[in-house]
């Protein structure tokens, strides 16, 4: 693919991740906690943990299945496009229905459906990186994806925080963003047809036995893959504990009212975005330039650890803003490097194949979805045991530091 085509595809992936993360951050960060709080204020922490866990556990199955099926898909539109379009439409449609939920169970079920769509879309979009980008260019696209993740987090927080009191409006805005972005992407960045007498890409037939076997990647045969999985698992579980309960932290730890907390949550999204803008693109480009990944992961962990410590000593709006800026700087560096590192430790790469990249990246995606599923329950249990939110920040510090240590034994990536 020509450089202009790679740049266009990189920007398109950035926008896809903006749409994905806008729904995730706006929904799980503000809209769902607000819905749950209005349904049952006394049990909101436990109920949010239930809804979050149900959604994230679905991700554990949805993303690997969608990744494997997209590897095997044959259509005139290519392997990835059907899953991107179908996933995007499902996520948008159920997002519109979310404010109609009248019970915690209904909220959980509708959010589950949203997450199934989001993960089908994400599995197919992520597989486009090893499909179309040479290894030397993956740091740059990883930086663009990382930037998209953070812009999406900010967009979701701004839309949800600004319009939270406007009924269905924030849900409609986020759903419309998803439809427009995915529709534009598949029209501008057309996938190679995988159907015909001479398909442009290798087809791997879907086999249930092979798929289930593919969930297990031997740490002995592929130690780098195992270390990368462990590193991402720990980094994500450290990051999401505090993020999941961000709205409640503003209300119950900082002491803001419901109206003030949603407004500040929107401001936090902007501050977080500024931090990532200052680090993500520069880190991805610099990583490609120097040919190294691991030092950037270690640096990002150190910055995130400092960020998580700030609210412990400054439990005010100012402290939360400083925490958000530093977290953006650290997380921006991490997500700008992480995807590039992951594509370089795939078992398929070691075997000289590319056809199972969707499945392998989706299996690595479990290192994101599993801790996302576990972190709300872990955080809720810790808050229940200690009676406060400081333990969430302390545990986050421990996890991100250990996550950086886990990347050091990887031998195939410098």
Automatic annotation (TrEMBL):
<feature type="transmembrane region" description="Helical">
    <location>
        <begin position="141"/>
        <end position="163"/>
    </location>
</feature>
<dbReference type="Pfam" id="PF07690">
    <property type="entry name" value="MFS_1"/>
</dbReference>
<feature type="transmembrane region" description="Helical">
    <location>
        <begin position="108"/>
        <end position="129"/>
    </location>
</feature>
<feature type="transmembrane region" description="Helical">
    <location>
        <begin position="389"/>
        <end position="410"/>
    </location>
</feature>
<feature type="transmembrane region" description="Helical">
    <location>
        <begin position="320"/>
        <end position="341"/>
    </location>
</feature>
<protein>
    <submittedName>
        <fullName>MFS transporter</fullName>
    </submittedName>
</protein>
<feature type="transmembrane region" description="Helical">
    <location>
        <begin position="296"/>
        <end position="314"/>
    </location>
</feature>
<dbReference type="InterPro" id="IPR005829">
    <property type="entry name" value="Sugar_transporter_CS"/>
</dbReference>
<dbReference type="InterPro" id="IPR020846">
    <property type="entry name" value="MFS_dom"/>
</dbReference>
<feature type="transmembrane region" description="Helical">
    <location>
        <begin position="169"/>
        <end position="188"/>
    </location>
</feature>
<keyword id="KW-1133">Transmembrane helix</keyword>
<feature type="transmembrane region" description="Helical">
    <location>
        <begin position="45"/>
        <end position="62"/>
    </location>
</feature>
<keyword id="KW-0812">Transmembrane</keyword>
<dbReference type="InterPro" id="IPR036259">
    <property type="entry name" value="MFS_trans_sf"/>
</dbReference>
<feature type="transmembrane region" description="Helical">
    <location>
        <begin position="12"/>
        <end position="33"/>
    </location>
</feature>
<feature type="domain" description="Major facilitator superfamily (MFS) profile">
    <location>
        <begin position="5"/>
        <end position="414"/>
    </location>
</feature>
<feature type="transmembrane region" description="Helical">
    <location>
        <begin position="225"/>
        <end position="243"/>
    </location>
</feature>
<keyword id="KW-0472">Membrane</keyword>
<feature type="transmembrane region" description="Helical">
    <location>
        <begin position="263"/>
        <end position="284"/>
    </location>
</feature>
<feature type="transmembrane region" description="Helical">
    <location>
        <begin position="361"/>
        <end position="383"/>
    </location>
</feature>
<feature type="transmembrane region" description="Helical">
    <location>
        <begin position="83"/>
        <end position="102"/>
    </location>
</feature>
<dbReference type="InterPro" id="IPR011701">
    <property type="entry name" value="MFS"/>
</dbReference>
């Amino acid at each position: 693919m020509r450089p202009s085509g790679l740049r266009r595809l990189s920007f398109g992936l950035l926008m896809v991740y903006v749409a994905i993360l806008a729904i995730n951050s706006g929904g799980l960060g503000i809209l769902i906690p607000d819905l749950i709080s209005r349904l049952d204020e006394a049990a909101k922490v436990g109920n949010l943990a239930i809804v979050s866990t149900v959604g994230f556990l679905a991700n554990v199955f949805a993303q690997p299945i969608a990744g494997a099926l997209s590897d095997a898909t044959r259509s005139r539109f290519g392997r990835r496009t059907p899953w991107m379009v179908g996933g995007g439409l499902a996520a948008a449609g159920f997002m519109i229905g979310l404010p109609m939920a009248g019970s915690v169970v209904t909220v959980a079920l509708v959010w589950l459906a949203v997450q199934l769509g989001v993960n089908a879309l994400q599995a197919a979009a992520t597989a486009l990186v090893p499909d179309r980008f040479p290894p030397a260019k993956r740091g740059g696209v990883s930086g663009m994806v990382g930037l998209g993740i953070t812009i999406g987090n900010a967009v979701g927080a701004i839309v949800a925080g600004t319009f939270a009191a406007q009924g269905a409006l924030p849900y409609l805005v986020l759903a419309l963003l998803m439809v427009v972005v995915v529709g534009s992407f598949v029209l501008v960045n057309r996938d190679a047809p995988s159907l015909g007498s001479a398909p442009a890409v290798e087809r791997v037939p879907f086999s249930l036995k092979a798929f289930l076997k593919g969930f297990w990647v031997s740490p002995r045969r592929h130690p780098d893959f195992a270390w990368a999985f462990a590193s991402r698992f720990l980094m994500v579980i450290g990051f999401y504990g505090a993020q999941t309960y961000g709205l409640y932290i503003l209300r119950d730890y900082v002491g803001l009212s419901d109206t003030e907390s949603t407004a500040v949550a929107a401001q936090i999204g902007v501050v977080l975005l500024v931090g990532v803008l200052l680090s993500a693109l520069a880190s991805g480009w610099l990583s490609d330039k120097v040919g190294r990944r691991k030092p950037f992961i270690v640096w990002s962990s150190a910055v995130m650890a400092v960020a998580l410590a700030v609210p412990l000593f400054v439990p005010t709006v100012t402290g939360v803003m400083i925490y958000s800026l530093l977290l953006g700087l650290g997380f921006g560096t991490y997500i700008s490097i992480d995807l590039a590192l992951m594509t370089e430790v795939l078992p398929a790469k070691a075997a000289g194949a590319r056809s199972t990249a969707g499945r392998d990246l989706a299996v690595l995606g479990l290192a994101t979805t599993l801790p996302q599923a576990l972190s709300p329950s872990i955080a809720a249990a810790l808050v229940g045991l200690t009676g406060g939110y400081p333990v969430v920040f302390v545990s986050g510090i421990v996890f991100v530091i250990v996550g950086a240590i886990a990347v050091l034994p990887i031998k195939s990536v410098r």
